[in-house]
Design goal:
Layout: H1 6-17, E1 20-25, E2 31-36, H2 39-51, E3 75-77
Parallel strand pairs: 1-3
Antiparallel strand pairs: 1-2
């Protein structure tokens, strides 16, 4: 669900967990997140994303694992 601060919640969670990457809204209403970090850091980050901010309702959650594209210097919102 968009419009409830999910992207900015993701940024705060990423910074707290120590992961890099980005978050962005997709045209179909979904939110895409790419994250890179240690296995433990990414696991904590995914747990936070599954619950989302208090005003959100996460209806579906899919994790695709693969090699990180690398080059992330922080975690950002992409438009």
């Amino acid at each position: 669900m968009q419009g409830v601060g999910y992207r900015f919640f993701a940024v705060r969670a990423a910074e707290s967990c120590g992961v890099t990457g980005f978050v962005r809204n997709l045209e179909d209403g979904a939110v895409e997140v790419r994250a890179d970090g240690s296995g433990e850091a990414v696991s904590r980050f995914l747990a936070a994303l599954r619950s989302g901010p208090s005003a959100s309702k996460v209806e579906d959650f899919e994790v695709l694992e693969g090699r990180a594209a690398g080059g992330f210097r922080g975690f950002e919102v992409r438009y």
